[in-house]
Specification:
Oligomer: single chain
Number of helices: 3
Number of strands: 20
CATH superfamily: Outer membrane protein transport protein (OMPP1/FadL/TodX)
Strand order of the largest sheet: 1-3-4-6-7-8-9-12-13-16-17-18-19-20
Order of helices and strands: HHHEEEEEEEEEEEEEEEEEEEE
CATH topology: Porin
Strand content: over 45%
Shape: globular
Structural class: mainly beta
Length: 393
């Protein structure tokens, strides 16, 4: 198969197969991040729209939250021969906006979230990966209106559609320096989806939450360009997988909240990508062997008095792409993440700050049949911060 088509396909597929390293951004609020994203069974601020929209029935009146997430992601590579390379670690920033309103006379709450569940870019900036992806960038913006119903004092349920727009940009390095043997792809698409959530609080000490996010299927349409030649319109449909999250919160006293969450993502949906109107005159289909994976979240929050609180958390994220289809544009690996948070809740104004780091001890890739030049050892260390303010009306 022509390496140009293979490189583009791998880039688009990898854009959806990353968890905490590449393009998936599960970190959508500093209060949740500080406790290791273990927030599905708590969900008591406007970011519940992302973590478990049933939780917005706990909020009073109107609330608006604005947040900004910044991350410096660095992966280093060592080849079997000892050559090295690393990704650009310049900070990248994505916004988060949530608004909720709870009616006074009926047990209904509504909300709107605008957030970036996938995104960021990876830039190796080095011809070491001469026939593998060099740069990749994914923009994925979601608008998510929700309606939540407090069925009774102990139980709330919610549902809402998602409207998703995405743009993918990819460039591979030249095979030989200063040659025209370099390719670039830029395409975009949109797709609908939906979410629903359940929050069950049978006792002040216990809370249970479930959140479901549907798969989406985006048809990326754009231009494939080989430098020195005319561009060709190319399209490929990519399936972004469904995710199911469950959480248990235990509050032994009003000052402590311990939560464990487990999420499952159906990465096996990423099994085939077909390019229509390819520059080679015929459709091209590629098969993948992505694996379903789990993420384990654990967090603790301690109330400090006068509205202040502090949190710590831990996340373990399983890798989802096997060695045979590994691509450096998606430096996926088993990850350990540490999280710390601090904030204050007031009558009309809340603020929160969080820090997160992620690392893997080193993933050795061998036997990569899709990208033989990608064999080697990859080590990751990321730093991230998140800040938000919430105004209550």
């Amino acid at each position: 198969m022509n390496h140009y088509a293979l490189a583009i396909a791998l880039t688009l597929a990898s854009a959806e197969s990353s968890r905490a390293v590449g393009f998936l951004l599960p970190n959508q609020d500093p209060e949740a991040i500080g406790r290791g994203d273990a927030f599905t069974a708590t969900a008591d601020n406007p970011s519940a729209i992302y973590y478990n929209p049933a939780g917005i029935t706990q909020l009073q009146g109107a609330q608006v939250s604005l947040g900004l997430y910044g991350i410096s992601a660095r992966t280093s590579y060592t080849s079997p021969s000892g050559a090295t390379a690393h990704t650009d670690a310049n900070p990248q920033f994505v916004p988060q906006v949530y608004a909720t309103y709870s009616f006074k006379d009926v047990p209904i709450s509504v909300g709107l979230g605008v957030y970036v569940p996938y995104g960021l870019s990876v830039n190796w900036g080095d011809p070491s990966f001469s026939n593998v992806a060099q740069k990749g960038k994914l923009t994925y913006l979601t608008a998510n209106p929700v309606v939540a119903w407090q069925i009774c004092k102990m139980l709330s349920a919610s549902a809402g559609p998602t409207i998703n727009y995405s743009e993918a940009i990819f460039q591979n390095a030249p095979f030989f320096p200063f040659s025209s043997d370099q390719v670039h792809f830029q395409g975009s698409g949109w797709a609908p989806g939906y979410t629903f959530g359940i929050l069950f609080q049978p006792h002040p000490m216990w809370s249970f939450g479930v959140d479901y996010r549907s798969e989406t299927s985006l048809n990326y349409s754009g231009q494939f360009v080989q430098y020195g030649a005319a561009g060709v319109t190319t399209s490929a449909r990519i399936h972004f997988p469904r995710t199911v999250l469950g959480g248990i919160s235990f509050r032994p006293t009003p000052d402590w909240n311990l939560e464990f969450d487990l999420s499952w993502t159906q990465w096996s949906k990423v099994n085939e990508v077909t390019f229509q109107n390819s520059p080679f005159g015929i459709p091209i289909s590629l098969n993948f062997d992505y694996r379903n994976s789990f993420i384990y979240d654990f967090g603790v929050t301690r109330q400090l008095g006068k509205g202040y609180y502090a949190s710590v958390g831990y996340i373990f994220s399983q890798k989802s792409n096997p060695n045979a289809t590994y691509d450096p544009i998606d430096p996926d690996a088993n990850l350990h993440l540490g999280n710390f948070g601090f904030g204050h809740k007031g009558e009309h104004f809340d603020w929160a700050l969080a820090y997160q780091f992620a690392y893997n001890g080193g993933r050795t890739v061998s036997g990569d049949t899709a990208n033989p030049s990608a064999d080697g050892t990859y080590k990751t260390f990321n730093n991230a911060v998140n800040a938000s303010v919430t105004v209550k009306f």
